[in-house]
Amino acid sequence: MQLRPHQERAVEMLRDSLRRGNKRPILAAPCSFGKTITAAYMLSEAAKKGKRGFFFCDRVKLVQQALEAFDAQGLDVGVMQGQHQRTDYSAPIQIASIQTVARRSNIPEFDFAVVDECHVHYKSLQKIMDRYTAVPFIGLSATPYSKGLGLAYDDLIVPITPAQLLEQRYLTPVEYFGGKSVDVSKVGGRALKTGGSDYDPLQLAAATEKDLTLTGDIIKNWIKYADGRQTIAFSPSIKHSRDMVDQFNEAGISAVHIDGYMDDEERQVIYRAHDRGEFLVLSCSRLLNVGYDAPKVSCLIDCFPTKSLITYVQRAGRIMRTAEGKENAIYLDHAGNVARHGFAEFVVPDSLDNAEKRFNERSQVKKEKSSNPINCPDCFRQFYGMRCVCGYTLPFKERIKTDGSELKKLEHKAKKQIDRGQWLAELSLYAHYQGYKQGWAAHIYRQKFGCWPNRVTPPRVRDISPEVMGFIKHCQIRRAHAG
Hints:
By secondary structure, this protein is an alpha/beta fold. The protein contains 16 helices and 21 strands. The strands form 5 sheets. Strands 12-13-11-14-15-8-19-18 form an 8-stranded mixed sheet.
């Protein structure tokens, strides 16, 4: 089994972590890193030493993908997932559904384990980890940003960043385009299993479905920037996805909706037809966010706003896989997610949450770009720096903001004008409370503004603001030190 250099580095870093006494390291690796192949290599090396290894997955689709990848490497594999036809407890490598193992009491003993998509941490998996305390468990994730993940795992391994994989051409470069997006200002929130929060799905769906011009804008921009590309699309509801598919088809663009309520056999037919290019746009609500592997796809239509960094990075990763003839990928952002989170390739894991502080996904990330991307007013690409690839140059100390329909210029905020009459009135009120002469207020006014209040007419006031009280205390402290 021939590993790529970054995969070899990952294996060495994991071995070093285990040698240092860690039992639960996480390999944080971007989409298209080749985490499954890296896991297959580690499990095969363990099998050569007479050890049994488990590869844990949390859903049927991931079990099947892992089986296909391991079979391609010629590994001796058994599957523990329901009544799977490849069940074989004697095999040195077991691909196991977490849910299946949790329900069974007679699983074979094992010496080494890998957990796929470990940011989704199940209580049932934690019970297994607690039972096998001497067994190393290696987590795999492109987005290890879940609450309390650092309580289950004890080390974070980051062998390479997405930006470095792009430089080495192991990922496809992405062009980001910002356009009209749904208004989420009145959409409430909900808690996520990973510990973060996101928009309330019902409210978000209602807001999106009510915006009748959004779908037309989506189709118009797809024709302009991605016509002919194999595309996947995300909607906040199945209804919106179906409506968008209908309008794509009415516009003469072949599109199909897919969701988790369909039979698996029907979904597989749709996947294969899309891979063959029989239609261009495959639209869903959430189904394709994790575990979807179609390297030929080179366009993402995102009209599903999300606060979750995990969801955003996983979604963007669907179009970053390389394929023959695929020079770049297009991200059409109609959800405001790129502006909300930055370019996906610049989001890099930095730490694991240990539940000691208030949880925030962003506190576990170091961004290789510190600022949010800018929407180009000429071509609507999103870019960093001062210059877009189309030639547009950002005016000095100005930024242009667009929603795809109306350009808005962010002006410099004017300095707040200080009401000198208000100040004099509040100083006079303080002098009255303290029994000072009225000349005291004029002297303090002069210290503040550098002149006497000769032509200032104070209004009537009843309270003294914190700003005025703060300045009075400042003057009192300064006088005390001078004395």
